[in-house]
Design goal:
The protein has 139 residues and is α+β, with helices and mostly antiparallel strands. The chain folds into two domains: 79 residues, VC0802-like; 51 residues. It contains five helices and seven strands, in the order αββαββαβαββα. Strands 1, 2, 3, 4, 5, 6 and 7 form a seven-stranded antiparallel beta sheet that branches. It starts with 5 loop residues before the first helix and ends with a helix.
Length: 139
Amino acid sequence: MAVLELGELLRGMSPKLKKGKYFLASVPESEMMVIANYLEYIICIYREEEGLTVLFSQEINEEIESVSQGKAAGPFALITLEVTSDLFAIGFLARITGVLAKEKISVNAFSAYYHGHLLVPYGQRKEAVAALEKLSAKG
């Protein structure tokens, strides 16, 4: 069941650090068939006016950069917030990004149907998880 109440979301978020390094790149829509060959390594694709933003694991960095509109950004660590958050919950990501900002950790946050996900600089992944675990303990 999806959680709506902010305190319950924070207490139950269970940040999980995914293995590996992740990158973001912008790819022209005309290259969709090329990137479709690598769906196993692609976390998400978002359509923007400028092109497709692709979040992918390090294994296909060369392949994606060869069709991208510039160098891929990264490396990032990917943290999944394991609580199933209600899509109408208010303030959840604001609290999380605020805590990371106080720790001087940049974050790119996105929400999918079941969970929130965070991209943080790979070199600060342990500090990010520690800050999130501390926030979760406080609720």
